[in-house]
Amino acid sequence: MNINQEQLIIFKTVIEAGSFSAAARKLGKVPSAVSMSISNLEIDLNLNLFNRIGREPIPTPQALSLYEKTEQLLIEMNQWKQQASALSNGLESALNIVVVSELLHTHWTDYISLLEQEFPELQINIFSAPQEDALKLLMNQSAQLALMFEREQLESREQFVELKREALVPVAAKDYPLAQFEHVSFEQILQSRQIVVASRDRTIKPELLYSKRNWRTDNHHSACAMIMQGLGWGVLPLEMFNENPSLKKQLKILNFSDFTPKFEYFVDLVWSRETELGAAARFLINHIRKQRIHTK
């Protein structure tokens, strides 16, 4: 059996137009070419598709059953061709993006929507991880792009473009001991348990770790739950409060008296110089670069 796309288009058009001659006019072909194509299709399928009694061909039940599948099959064939063309032009077969846990409350999905509009056939996979693990995924090429906080020290393999600023705030449950003070000293911070979002690799020290006593988790959702339970204080994205005003009733933002830690960071789109980026990854990087130029 050797069915091609043109035969399917002709078959579909004949049923919809009601005759070989009407289908021929619609397709810009001579009626004999349409008739020949249908005859060859019937031979290939070993099915009688049209009863040719009278002036117009009448679709058989078998033809009507196949017609229901034809349009979807033609759509899939066009999608296959588009994907093959995109791949030949450098589109990656899949794009893996890792988003740092604390940034899941930002509008990162806007960039995914942009990619979907530009490359509708692209397979996109999203992962979330603490900052240190996100960098590992990037450097071992498990992910091509990462949305991360800026780092004081960059690896030589890293390349990045800045997206925006994002604020983090130190918080505690309103009935937690630290929350009873108008200003919190550095010594109080050292001695109070901190709930810290950190890599699962315990040999890696978290960047925002201040307390001698700490519990670790790999995402800010569980960190927030433990902080609200009064199990410790921690650092959470300010955006969480903007999206969930009820948190303001349960958590207090702490004021540090002895020092002012850096809690405002640039968010970067990061990639590895060693990774050969495809068309979609390059498109997103260039889009963000153009955005920065226009906003300056």
UniProtKB/TrEMBL annotation:
Entry protein name: LysR family transcriptional regulator
An example Gene Ontology molecular-function term: DNA-binding transcription factor activity
Keywords: DNA-binding, Transcription, Transcription regulation
SUPFAM superfamilies: Periplasmic binding protein-like II, Winged helix' DNA-binding domain
PROSITE patterns listed in its UniProt record: HTH_LYSR (PS50931)
Domain HTH lysR-type: 1-60
Organism: Acinetobacter silvestris
Annotated family: Belongs to the LysR transcriptional regulatory family.
InterPro entries in the record: LysR_HTH_N (IPR000847), LysR_subst-bd (IPR005119), WH-like_DNA-bd_sf (IPR036388), WH_DNA-bd_sf (IPR036390)
